[in-house]
Amino acid sequence: MSAPFLKVEGLAKRFPGERGKSDLTVFENIHFGIEKGEFACIIGHSGCGKTTILNVLAGLDEASDGLVIMDGKEVRGPSLDRGVVFQGHALLPWLSALKNVEFGVRSRWPGWSAQQIHAHSTKYLEMVGLGHAMDKKPAELSGGMKQRVGIARAFAIEPKMLLLDEPFGALDALTRGTIQDELLAIVQATHQTVFMITHDVDEAILLADKIVLMSNGPYARIAEIVEVTLPRDRSRATMHHNPQFYRIRNHLVDFLVNRSHDFANGAAVDHDPLHPPLVRPGLESAGAEILPLPSAQQQPPHSNPTRIHKASA
Amino acid sequence: MSDKKPWLAPLLSVLFLALLIGLWQLATKQEQGAVVVDDEYAALIGAAAASGGKSAMPTPADVGAKLWEHLSDPFYDRGTNDKGIGIQLGHSIARVLMGFGLAALVAVPLGFVIGMSPLVYKALDPFIQILKPISPLAWMPLALYIIKDSGISAVFVIFICSLWPMLVNTAFGVASVRRDWINVARTLEVSRLRTAFHVILPAAAPTIMTGMRISIGIAWLVIVAAEMLVGGTGIGYFVWNEWNNLSIANIISAILFIGLIGMLLDNTLARLARAVTYKE
């Protein structure tokens, strides 16, 4: 298969302007792809339309232009193929943790018996370490536990792809670290394809295979795609000892602080939105050399990670 | 403070009651033996009238005796104008529950549709705005003319007055269900019907119950007036009948019972509301 598992083509979102004024374009010309089993993070300042992109991927929102193709089919409306973990956990407060998970499982496999649904849901709650709190209502759970239930609910329907909208944004740093580790372990074990919004640079480096950097809105676009060149078996405890970690981190912070607003001002004239540059901070020979993203005909970078690097050297 | 002395509030309540009854007693104290009349005259026109300026206002003891009389035999039936207070209250409660139940059957589904569809909401809003402030009793003559049955007309009046709070609250509750919860159901490909029953209904249930509680309160207020108009049976008719008999003790007893039943209805609905309330 040459096309990536998830392909976003020319996505745009415009809001009609008030009387006489021109339309407000949040983002346009968004092109990117995610391979099967790949973990992609998207980073950008508020207002660049990250959540809108995620909602379009989820089928909850409609783009003004462009299309999304997943597994060879165009995304139209929400589907059990794409599990969503919402920013505000969005658990149904009148149901226990277990019933919240079962709610999705029952919809995914309508033919299952009550015991099957129960066993399946229990398995996923235990996976996120909530075996002891299954019968508690969301109000009785801490913020971290609630988000764990949300993650269990999304994983339990065994979607082809998982969409996470800044899932740890509302959590304290310690809880966030623990759940990041858990998510990392689960994703590594299940080879789940993930698309995640985050504001946290460290979180993105810890979890992602590649990080999509968005320039500021309006007229936001994908500035570049950063490949996380750390070994996949990274952990929060040891990651920061790897010098490569800081090269990537510095690159990301530098982008967010210094360069993310240049695009709207038209500074990046030679920027090709169809092929946003693929960057591997620290591995280019002279500073931040920019590499083009391979086109659809070429091998996807994930399946053959050394290819691009060699080509540039 | 009140946590440490849980008996303080009830004690104060009892004190207030004693004060109230004491004032009442003082206000209705009879001047005994001020007027002396002929025995034969008294036998002719009745002792009360014969003794002159005696007020029809009963003392607390009179009312207490009346209350005991009602409580000891609440369900007797000795003809049209002489039924036990239990039977009269029973008729009123039955009418209220019937009218309220019918209103709920209409208001909850209709409120659901209005809450889900901004179009239907806009289309029906003018009707609701105009019909809602109409005193339910204004419908009474129309109901009597169309239905031609006073009992059913009273139920209709209860139906009309119960309808609006339930309708408006259901629509509001359904319309303000959190977008996230609906989106959860959408991403899980839950059918529209299952979403309505398993997401929107439980989410809006506390608001719907609030509407029901307001409705039953209004219904119980209106039934007394409605029954005064239609007559025949019911606690409203009883009050009016006792006014014609000038039996203030009976009227006061009835007032107390009306308050008591109203409180019970409200408490029942409050308990149901608590059962469907969730903490976020």
Task: Describe, in plain words, how this protein is organized in 3D.
The complex is a heterodimer of chains A (313) and B (280). Chain A is α/β, with parallel strands linked by helices and 313 residues long. Chain A has a single domain, classed as Rossmann fold, CATH 3.40.50. Chain A has helices at residues 50-58, 97-108, 114-127, 143-156, 173-190, 201-207, 243-259, 306-312; strands at 6-15, 24-34, 39-43, 65-70, 73-74, 82-85, 161-165, 193-197, 210-214, 222-227, 278-279. The two termini of chain A are 27 Å apart. Chain A is globular. In chain A, helix 2 crosses helix 3, helix 2 packs parallel to helix 4 and helix 3 crosses helix 4. Helices cover 31% and strands 19% of the residues of chain A. In chain A, the strands form two sheets. Chain A has a seven-stranded mixed β-sheet with strand order 6-7-8-3-9-10-11, sandwiched between helices. Chain A has a four-stranded antiparallel β-sheet with strand order 2-1-4-5, with helices on one face. Chain A has eight helices and eleven strands. Chain B is mainly alpha-helical. Chain B has two domains: 1-55; 85-276, MetI-like (MetI-like fold, Orthogonal Bundle), CATH 1.10.3720.10. In chain B, 75% of the residues lie in helices and 0% in strands. Chain B contains twelve helices and no strands. The model of chain B has no long low-confidence stretch (mean pLDDT 90). The chains are: A alpha/beta (313), B mainly alpha (280). Chain A binds chain B through residues 58-60, 77-80, 82-84, 86, 88, 90, 92-94, 103-104, 107-108, 137-139, 157, and chain B through 178, 180-181, 183-184, 186-190, 194, 198-199, 202-203, 276, 278-280.
